[in-house]
Amino acid sequence: MGFFITFEGIEGCGKSTQLELLKAHLEKKGRAVLSVREPGGTLLGERVRSVLLNGTEEGIDPWAELFLYEACRAQLVAKVIKPALASGKVVLCDRFFDSTLAYQGFGRGLDSEKIEGLNALATGGLVPDLTFLVDCAEEVGLKRAWARINASAGAREDRVEKEELAFHRRVRGGFLEIARAAPRVKVVDGSREISTVHREICDIIEGAAGL
Ligand code: TMP
Q1: Which residues line ligand 1 (CB under 6 A)?
Q2: 3-208 CATH fold
């Protein structure tokens, strides 16, 4: 069996950069690694991703939004993640079900028990072996996210990045609460230098049983 690692955190926390660095590190050590992202990672998921991040003229109802994230997840788990794990690969996933609890639960205020039920259905009970919560203050994350948008020609902020600061504060608080309840979630301080965060992640990986 392979090993399943997820990366979580608010916008601009640096999780995607850290995922890429860890991928290179594990590959250098000879591991076969597959990296995917949520929402996305399949043909269906990438199509739904553009709807989720760009929105529709009529807006998206929070429950409809939740089901779309879960639909992407069901497709990704069944078509990509489970087969990769069965073939012995290390799978790195940029966001997974903790994001749904943090954003749709803590952020939008949907019932967390119902979300957890849907998460379990969409994943068929698959739980990450290890999760890195790359944590930073919402002001820091959003500033980075905006800098990225300003630096790339043609890029525009997505629906979630447009949310007010209080929304991102609730999401961050949600992630930290999830981490307190789940030993698989390791919180790393993402406000530090990229290389410092990477080193800490590698140290945690070295000590991980089963990898
Ligand atoms: P990202 O690729 O920058 O991480 O953006 C994905 C966006 O989707 C991000 O704003 C968080 C949001 N999201 C949810 O609201 N719920 C979810 O379950 C997932 C996976 C992502």
Answers
A1: 11, 37-39, 69, 95, 99-100, 103-104, 160
A2: Rossmann fold (3.40.50)
